[in-house]
Amino acid sequence: MAEQAQPAANQNYRRKRKHSFWDISFNVFNYSIISIIAFVCIFPFLNTFANAFSSSHAIQSGKVVLWPVEFQLDAMRSVFWDNNVIRALFVTIFVTVVGTTLNMVLTIMTAYPLSRRDLVGRKYFMNYMIFTMMFSGGLIPGYLLIKYLGMLNTLWALIIPGAVSAFNVIIMKSFFQNMPEELREAAVMDGCGNIRYMLRIVLPLSGAVMATIGLFYAVGHWNSYMNAIILIDNSDLFTLQVRLRNILLLSQMDTSLEVMQQQGKLQVIEESLKASTAIFATVPILIVYPFLQKYFVKGSFLGSVKG
Questions:
Q1: How far apart, in Å, are the Cα atoms of 10 and each of 3, 5, 7, 294?
Q2: Helices (H), the chain
Q3: Is residue 280 packed enough to be buried (19+ CB in 10 Å), middle (13-18) or exposed (0-12)?
Q4: Which of 7, 55, 216, 220 has the lowest tally of Cβ within 10 angstroms?
Q5: How many CA atoms does the CB half-sphere of 75 hold within 13 Å?
Q6: Ranges of each domain in the chain
Q7: Among 211, 182, 232, residue whose Cα is nearest residue 288
Q8: Mind listing the pLDDT tens digit for each residue in 194-239?
């Protein structure tokens, strides 16, 4: 018996060893591919960051790749001295804060009634919203509508047209539907109305999906570009992304900074100034994201469990 069990044990050992070898090889391959993709994605940001804080001589010599060479802050100071960029920053903050607040209020007010199975015409409203996701009025009709409403060259043109996203409403509606029906029944028995139930019970339990949807809206407003280009002609109302575009493509900067460069008081080349502006426009949203990341992942999955 012992002699028969020995070959079987050896065979199982070889099988486990072989299986372990292929597991290790597969993991090594996966980690290698993921590392390469991650490096390709993060390389432009690292290179931009390095150019923003490297000296003009190092950039012109081609020494800058992934980290700053001959560290300096002149380019970043130039961005903070540019009145146009600072004004655009405050415009973007206003649009992001006000727009996201309005988006969340309207999304919640739309998603909660649609999540109630006793809502009359619920399927009709849902089909109507899905239709708007597949078909849009187009650029020119949208522009004419904004013009007819008198919102051209106003910040409301960047806020009102996208006040509600059908995709985000569907995610939030699905999240609300996943809540136990017993909660509402208990609240009704205690004399809680619909609005009070939503404010006191539903919303406090929906922190994950609200953070997710809020992040979607905030990033969308912060990166808003095409609407600002098309609907805003007043340079005082340009958003940060439009200013960044003007600096990157048209090399437009504050006149006072141009004078300082011509006088030799500011030793900053164009590449370093562009990189600093890109970092200036990107870092604020990167600072906010880590605090919402756990809610972002959780809310995305919970909101997609049930339609």
A1: 11, 9, 5, 46
A2: 2-52, 56-60, 74-81, 83-115, 122-134, 139-148, 166-177, 181-189, 194-197, 207-222, 226-231, 240-250, 255-262, 270-302
A3: buried
A4: 7
A5: 27
A6: 2-60, 74-302
A7: 211
A8: 888 888 888 888 888 888 888 889 888 988 888 888 888 888 888 8
Neighbours of 265 (CB within 10 A): 9
Q: Between vectors from CA 303 to CA 302 and to CA 307, what angle results, nearest 5°?
A: 120
Task: Give the integer Cα–Cα distance in Å for 215 and 257.
Answer: 35
pTM of the model: 0.75
Q: Is there a contact between 260 and 68 (Cβ–Cβ < 8 Å)?
A: no
- Report phi then psi at 184, rounded to 5: -70, -40
- What six digits make up the tokens of 225? 């570009």
CATH 1.10.3720.10 fits 74-302, yes or no: yes
d(CA 18, CA 129): 54
> Residue 119: phi, psi to the nearest 5?
-75, 125
* Residue 196, CA distances (Å) to 66, 152, 201 in order: 54, 38, 8
What is the residue whose two structure tokens read 């079987």? 8
Q: pLDDT tens for residues 104-125?
A: 999 999 998 888 888 888 888 8
d(CA 267, CA 260): 9
- Tokens in use for 97? 């804060």
- Distance between CA atoms of residues 227 and 212, nearest Å: 23
Q: Are 242 and 233 in contact (CB under 8 A)?
A: no
